[in-house]
Amino acid sequence: MVxxxxxxxxxxxxxxxxxxxxxxxxxxxxxxxxxxxxxxxxDEIIIYRDRSGYFDNALFLSKILNYLNTAxxxxxxxxxxTKDLKYVGILPPLCISHHLVSNDSVQENEIREGVILSxxxxxxxxxxxxxxxxxxxxxxxxxxxxxxxxxxxxxxxxPKLELVSKNELKNYYGYSVKITNSSLPQMxxxxxxxxxxxxxxxxxxxxxxxxxxxxxxxxxSILLAFGSHFEGLYEICLREGVNLDTVVDYVINFVxxxxxxxxxxxxxxxxxxxxxxxxxxFLSNP
Length: 286
What we know:
Layout: E1 7-13, H1 23-39, E2 44-49, H2 55-69, H3 75-78, E3 111-120, E4 123-127, E5 134-137, E6 148-155, E7 158-164, E8 176-183, H4 184-190, E9 194-204, H5 205-216, E10 221-225, H6 233-239, E11 250-253, H7 265-284
Parallel strand pairs: 1-2, 1-10, 2-8, 9-10, 9-11
Antiparallel strand pairs: 3-4, 3-6, 4-5, 6-7
Helix pairs in contact: 1-2, 1-7
């Protein structure tokens, strides 16, 4: 599961799925998009402010998405059971690189997600999903119960852990989630890279395919922005006094001649990322 050569960011609104009345259905919908993000190797999800009064909903979105991205053996340690997590047990697993099962064996250079449980002097007790936590010496104290990635090394047949960053690794190790109080135009203006807005009012992807191929040769970061159940991206920007066309590189209709009046966000995500994945792989394997 080698990651893309591009850093891929998805922008979704704070009001996403707020129209869904029951927490069970909302959790299910988040499970579908979490799978989508993982299948297409999304690096970052930004939850932007599309309208006031939905910050609590954004916290819920972030909690479920982060929970699902966490290695299964760490979930009970990091996330105490709360009402928000009542239905996560019905969701399908992501099955990504760091979602290994708990076992008694580990391989040299294996990458495992872990958390520091506590410290004893200069030694840290770290849970990485083995039969029992590993005790290692630490030159600096890192936060307790914060997800970290470790490479396993063996010295004198004893496992040692080397802290690594996702940026150093070739494989895909899940996404990060960021809530911002910035409006859509503000968030877009801060992003450095190719910015693509998705809209039924945009230019058909059939007319933009060649442009995308050309642009992807010269950039390393891509942002895809999605609207809400209440409003599309043009309407969200208009309320901020901004023309969407002035803050993105392209506004693209990824489903020309659609057969339904509306397309749900989870459907739009799968469709759009499927097409972008085709473009990216065409460039990687011409």
